Amino acid sequence: MQLVLHLIIDYSQNAFVPERNISDNILLAQELLVGYNQARLPPRSTIKVDIQKAYDSVEWDFLFEVLKLFNFPVRFIGWIEQCVTTASFSISLNSSIYGYFTGARGLRQGDPMSPYLFVLVMEIWTTLLRHRVQHDPNFQYHWKCKEHRILSLCFADDGLLFCKAHIPSVQVIKDTLTEFANMSGLKVNASKIQIIISKSGQHEKQQILNLLGFQEGSLPVKYLGVPLTSSRLTLADCSPLIHKVDELLRGKYKIPRHRFILWLAILEKLSTMDKPWSSHAETGCLFVMESLKKLMTTCSSIVVYTSVLSSNSKKNQISLAVY
């Protein structure tokens, strides 16, 4: 199945598809959000979507119809059906195991086949959206998206939807989400979904919010672990990361000490690059030099601390040697 995914899955999806990278989504999303703080540019809107209990909610009948739609062999679909539907589960309660019972829907977390099946299911979302846009003359693309027909970016159950900030376009997206939920069982998490409207689209903002019933988001917004802004990343945008590292060092979270050595080695390498943002962007993380310097300062104390406590540890000695 993995060998043919790149032939089936739209380029707006990058999760679990060979030769596609998470950084493609992040960098394109960042490019499209540039200028959201400027009133002189066309009105735009971005909807950040989170699927509620994504793996657990997939309807089996829908999944098997999707496999048929993509012309997988009948025998192969039968194998998939046996793997998905015959699994049994038990519950651990007060140190006692109860069960077994069978499921009625969903994909198993940790099953190596589940990510590929989920990507195929999400491809229907993309297909439905493209079909509605094609047949609705009132829909208008997000700025810079019409030429390449960019409507969405999806990485597993995290998605971004793009359109012009006006009622007919937003209505198309809402109808697509509703139709997809009715077909697949995958519903958006209403408490987490956000719509970000550019400064030039503020005159229709309240109508759009009333139509969708979603909360209004603002920039910077975190997507796939990276803050996205309407301009360059600043030190303030990276401050949550620095704060979290500081809490880790203070012992609020438990983490093996040798990992700090690895982090420090990475930060040291980044801080010596001429353009650390361009190289490190390939892994999906974007930093500014000021944040790297602060992280280096925050982490430096752990080197001495770790080397003293683990002088007899061969593993940590190797980590220190690499650094």
In total, how many beta strands? Answer: 9
Unreliable runs: 274-285, 303-323
Sheet having the most strands? 5 strands, mixed
The tally of domains stands at 2
What structural category do the secondary elements indicate?
Answer: alpha+beta
Global outline = globular
Residue share in β-strands? 5-15%
- Shape-level CATH architecture of the largest domain: 2-Layer Sandwich
Strand/helix succession: HHEHHHEEHEEHEHEEEHHHHH
CATH topology of the largest domain: Alpha-Beta Plaits
Our count of helices gives 13
Strand order across the biggest sheet? Answer: 4-5-1-6-7
Radius of gyration: 23 Å
End-to-end distance, in Å? 40 Å
Classified by CATH, the class of the largest domain is Alpha Beta
Average pLDDT works out at 81
The portion of residues assigned to helices is 40-55%
Protein name: Retrovirus-related Pol polyprotein from type-2 retrotransposable element R2DM
Domain Reverse transcriptase: 1-228
InterPro entries: DNA/RNA_pol_sf, RT_dom
Pfam families: RVT_1 (PF00078)
